[in-house]
Amino acid sequence: MTCRDMVVSAVVTGDRNTAHPAAGRVDPLGDPFLRTRFAVPSRPATFLPRRRLTQHLAEGLRTPLTMVNGSAGAGKTLLVADWTANLDRPVAWLTVEAEKQRPGTFWAYFLQALSACGTPLSDRVHCPADPNRVSRKVLSEIAEDLVGRDPAPIVVLDEFDRVSASEVAEQLEFVLQHAGSGLRLILVTRNEPMLSLHRYRAAGTLTEIRDAELALNPEEAAALLELHGLSLPADAVRSLVERTRGWAAGLRLCALAAQESPDPERYLKEFEADHSTVADFLLAEVLRRQPPATQDLLLRVSVLDRFCPDLVNRLTHRTDAALILAELHRDNAFVEQLGQGWYRLHPLFGEILQTHLRVRHPGLEPDLHRSAAQWMRRRGALPEALAHGAAADDWGFTAAAVVDDLAIGQFFTGLRSDDLNELFSRMGPEATGPATELVRAARDLAHSELDRGVAHLHHVEAWLSAETEDPAAAQLSWAFLEAVAARLTGSPARAEQAAETADEVRQDVPPHLLDKHPELSALLLTHLGSTRLWAGRYEDARAALSEAADCPGGILTVLPREESMGHLALIDYLDGWPGRAEHQALAAMTETERFSLPQPAGSGIERLVLAAVAVDRHELGRAQALLDEADELDLDTQDPVKAAGRAIATSRLHLARGNARAAMESVTPALNTAVASPWADSLERLVTSAVHLAEGRSETAAEVLRHLPDDQPTWTVEAARIQLAAGRTRAAIDLLDSVPAESRPGPAVTVRAALVRAQAAQVAGDTETARRFVAQALLLARRERLRRPFLDAGRWIRPLLATAPLRSLAAEWLVPGPVSGNGPGAAGPRPAPIVVQELSERERDVLQRLAQMMSTEEIAVDLYLSVNTVKTHLKSLYRKLAVNRRSEAVHRARDMRLL
Amino acid sequence: MRYEIRIDGHMSDILTEAFPELEHVVMSGQTVLFGSVVDEAQLFGLLARCQSLGLRVVEMRRMPDD
């Protein structure tokens, strides 16, 4: 506990900006160890400032992009560090250290680096929440936020060669291009980055410092040797430069080795004549001359990315690492200081030392990793603990670290989900214990391997009931995974049981862990809500889902929040409120967009809801497009609620197109669930019944509808319509009368009910009543533009709609063509204008992008316009289309075939 | 695929251990690493390893399979 507190307080005093990330942008890294990534390495005492290079870098500020490209040990990092140290403007430094730097993670670090140097971007800019991607929107926001910054922040990306994802280079170019003079980017790299450098060269917007320029010339080499207390004749220096080709690391090692040698000059002569590879030979020399204890220390720390004295003591079983490290940093270039007591090995020497370690102490590496893992875990540095635990092949430890930290939910959400899944993909079957089983279950469930996941959970259950020792975190993890399994198996009893267990054990879990992992509760509530919805317990579902949707914001909970909103949208839709459902679904999509989330496993419900709403409005093309999108993004077909949601949208689309057979195929249940879903079953029966009706078997059609499993008004009213079409007027009206008045269904239900009553009246020859009900239906439907119920009603309605009062109610949104003959005094909605004024070309451009759901900022970036100009275009567009909102503009434009 | 990679300078025994999948021979101021390479990914991995160990690659070529 005390160790942890120490680390935390060190963060607070060390760097205010990192300790208090901008509100709304949760620190995606969440632990202090990564802060060293944003530290500018300090120069050793023997560092040689090189004016010709710093001058070149200073000139480079005139170009948006500077690239320092040289081999390992060419002195790139320290050169740039030295130059930035003397600048009077903000420098964001980011050392790219991860082996696999994914785009989402990269941009999260990028934003964090800007915050860490005191120039955070505004809260408007949202940090990516998915490790694998960043949306254009976020990139546009970043660029937009940088535009016009003066002085422009300088962003140094050190070890950029470690970025393996080619998208990152392209994304950097995008931001660089659109940030204008608001960003100066410096790439420090060992190899050619995948930017279109030729274009920058041609345009003169690139400053390059390459190997040849980085190489030390004889004067510089002499000065460097001088700093090491070696004074050599000019020709000796020249031949040394020749032998090392001016390679900074070579010359530095050379100086160190000579320094330790009894006759430095003779030693250097020998080295000149030697044929060994420079670094290899010299490092061995330098190492050999260190006291054995120091040699041992250097070899052992080579397994670490970064280290501090306490950690080194742990790995070396010493107590005086602080002293040795300070000395090593002062005297030679192996050890670089990152500030606040943290160091790292020079990457080149680190690599070579690791090779030495393997040769000299075979088998020691896993032990070192294990020690490091344990130390990191005690300090609360979970990602590092996991990485070392995995490197040590100690899966029991590594899995326990995840479970004890309550991080099990991160297999499903957040920036680390892919890393975690991949890390544990190396875990073999021999590791046993509750923690490893929990991790296996989490991985399987995250990959929709339901049966295997459930089997692992079963093993854990047996273990947990036997264990007595502090199992709270494990129990909570188990309960959480149970809820996942419950959702995927459509098992409400299991979900409630899981939620109950979670509530019980939650009190025994340290509160700070719960605070650290808001995603666990949010996910659990979402699964609970989803399972309740499946079982047709709408109100209980709404309670859980609303709570999940209201969970504290941030990256970790964005996925469950979006999913809950999608589910809530589905409930609204089932209640017959397409407008509300649409609103809720769009809110869910906005949420994911803001955080650059794709639609990963288990999600995408909101698109299905939007598609169903589009069918109700008879926008069949849009419905199809949304379904296609959902299919494209879909990874998880095992989620019952989602499968049923898809069945609703697809079957209704087929029915609207008159394709009853296809509709029936799309509702055939494929999933094996613990309980049947009343609404999914009702849907299936209704569609089946509709098929029978369409094929002339009205008796069978009516039979299928007896005792619908769900008494929601939505289904009752649809059943009434089919009964009526089958010629059973009495049954239809009885059904309608059975809908309790207090259920307050939405317009999608009430419109259909009114139409059924109208048709019944019409059949009975009471045209006046029929007309009254149709008028009621039109008034209810108009606001929501619910066209489908009228098209479904049948031929009888057409003559009615052609008569005077109804005609004006239906005009424009339902019946094509302008109102004619009624004159301006006619009742009903004001006639929708035909486009009075032609749209300009720019307005059309903006309109097209609106239809692609791009934001104002994105449109601005895309069209190379300022945001204000886009806003002006939008205004005149709205005026010409006679609308007030963008969604209306798109609808209107579609209706008028402008899109 | 068989490849050989020529490195400038004599590599120490320790450093050649960093390439356990390859054989090596030292001659006339150069070290030649040679052996079977599974695919391009491995080849680029070997080159990256050379780079990270500060080795200077002077030549690399594919050898005829025998």
Mean pLDDT of chain A equals 84
Give the CATH architecture of chain B.
2-Layer Sandwich
First-last Cα distance of chain A = 62 Å
Residue stretches of chain A low in confidence (pLDDT < 50, at least 5 long) are: 1-31, 818-835
How does the helix and strand content of chain A classify structurally? mainly alpha
Which segments of chain B are poorly predicted (pLDDT under 50) over 5 or more consecutive residues? none
Radius of gyration of CA atoms of chain B, rounded to a whole number = 11 Å
Q: Fraction of residues of chain A in helices?
A: 55-70%
Major β-sheet profile of chain A: 5 strands, parallel
What is the 3D shape of chain B? globular
Helix fraction of chain B?
Answer: 25-40%
For the termini of chain B, the CA-CA separation is 10 Å
| Order of neighbouring strands in the sheet with most strands of chain A | 2-3-4-1-5
Please, what is the average pLDDT of chain B? 90
CATH class of the largest domain in chain A: Alpha Beta
Number of strands of chain B: 4
CA radius of gyration of chain A is: 34 Å
CATH topology of the largest domain in chain A: Rossmann fold
Strands in their spatial order, largest beta sheet of chain B: 2-3-1-4
Overall CATH architecture of the largest domain in chain A: 3-Layer(aba) Sandwich
Summarize this entry quickly.
By secondary structure, chain A is mostly helical. Chain A contains 48 helices and seven strands. The A-B interface holds A 71-73, 190-191, 247, 249-250, 275-281, 284, 347-348, 351-352, 355-356, 358-359 and B 7-15, 17-18, 29, 31, 51-56.
Question: Can you walk through the features of this model?
Answer:
The complex is a heterodimer of chains A (899) and B (66). Chain A has 899 residues and is mostly helical. Chain A has 6 domains: 2-213, P-loop containing nucleotide triphosphate hydrolases (Rossmann fold); 218-288; 290-377, Arc Repressor Mutant, subunit A (Orthogonal Bundle), CATH 1.10.10; 517-707, Serine Threonine Protein Phosphatase 5, Tetratricopeptide repeat, CATH 1.25.40; 711-832; 841-895, Orthogonal Bundle (Arc Repressor Mutant, subunit A). The longest helix of chain A is centred in the middle third of the chain and has 18 residues, at 472-489. The two termini of chain A are 62 Å apart. Chain B is 26% helix and 39% strand. Chain B is α+β, with helices and mostly antiparallel strands and 66 residues long. The relative contact order of chain B is 0.36. Chain B has one domain (2-63): Alpha-Beta Plaits. The mean pLDDT of chain B is 90. Chain A binds chain B through residues 71-73, 190-191, 247, 249-250, 275-281, 284, 347-348, 351-352, 355-356, 358-359, and chain B through 7-15, 17-18, 29, 31, 51-56.
